[in-house]
């Protein structure tokens, strides 16, 4: 499936956004005006990473963290439209206790380095528009060391060394797909463009501190991302790969409809657990067989597309 979007009159209208942010213990009102939606990344279906021009309409980072401006500027339109109701909910923007996900992130960015970079928090949405999703692969939280996380679960940009979990993923793909040659890069963007949503349940992390942003609201948001996929009216269903207990619990909590989805649980690909059921699970072969049976010829994921780089 290919996502297309035609600019409408509504898209041309200026967006007026106002938020209240906390700065040095005082409430400060900040207004962003005259931002046209046609200039935003979410109207560009196949943007890999936000470029300098794409982000030229971003207000100061402190506002972008609290306001949905970050979502407007860096999230693909198909996802933004599906998830927009979440942006005004208490857990996301302003909770009843005056502490929300965005307020937490604001404080984290003031005091620590946070990964991935702001422009890449929603890169998964730009690489895999909602209407294009055929496979969902759930991770937990982003890599927390320098130069690793860029918004896709398990993926790293060159020249970063391929992490152990991704190396095991590559080994399993090579077992399932004879044409696949283990690449030297850990960048999974080409596979994402083919319809694989590489999604972490938590979208940010404090540098060098794993799971530091867990339980702050991202899990509620990404659960809605998954619901957006499963509730899609069109299409013949999707494949879910749930590796490790946390990913499986997430899917169980949401309630994956196994009539319309192919649910594949297994051990996590981490070197600590891959031998307990990930290696040999055949997930990549099974995914393609299921997609072929549901969608017909040409629906398979080209896992070996990484060899074209």
TrEMBL record:
<dbReference type="GO" id="GO:0005739">
    <property type="term" value="C:mitochondrion"/>
</dbReference>
<comment type="similarity">
    <text>Belongs to the uracil-DNA glycosylase (UDG) superfamily. UNG family.</text>
</comment>
<dbReference type="InterPro" id="IPR018085">
    <property type="entry name" value="Ura-DNA_Glyclase_AS"/>
</dbReference>
<feature type="domain" description="Uracil-DNA glycosylase-like">
    <location>
        <begin position="126"/>
        <end position="291"/>
    </location>
</feature>
<keyword id="KW-0234">DNA repair</keyword>
<protein>
    <recommendedName>
        <fullName>Uracil-DNA glycosylase</fullName>
        <ecNumber>3.2.2.27</ecNumber>
    </recommendedName>
</protein>
<keyword id="KW-0539">Nucleus</keyword>
<dbReference type="GO" id="GO:0004844">
    <property type="term" value="F:uracil DNA N-glycosylase activity"/>
</dbReference>
<dbReference type="InterPro" id="IPR002043">
    <property type="entry name" value="UDG_fam1"/>
</dbReference>
<comment type="function">
    <text>Excises uracil residues from the DNA which can arise as a result of misincorporation of dUMP residues by DNA polymerase or due to deamination of cytosine.</text>
</comment>
<keyword id="KW-0378">Hydrolase</keyword>
<dbReference type="GO" id="GO:0097510">
    <property type="term" value="P:base-excision repair, AP site formation via deaminated base removal"/>
</dbReference>
<keyword id="KW-0496">Mitochondrion</keyword>
<dbReference type="GO" id="GO:0005634">
    <property type="term" value="C:nucleus"/>
</dbReference>
<feature type="active site" description="Proton acceptor">
    <location>
        <position position="141"/>
    </location>
</feature>
<dbReference type="InterPro" id="IPR005122">
    <property type="entry name" value="Uracil-DNA_glycosylase-like"/>
</dbReference>
<dbReference type="Pfam" id="PF03167">
    <property type="entry name" value="UDG"/>
</dbReference>
<dbReference type="InterPro" id="IPR036895">
    <property type="entry name" value="Uracil-DNA_glycosylase-like_sf"/>
</dbReference>
<keyword id="KW-0227">DNA damage</keyword>
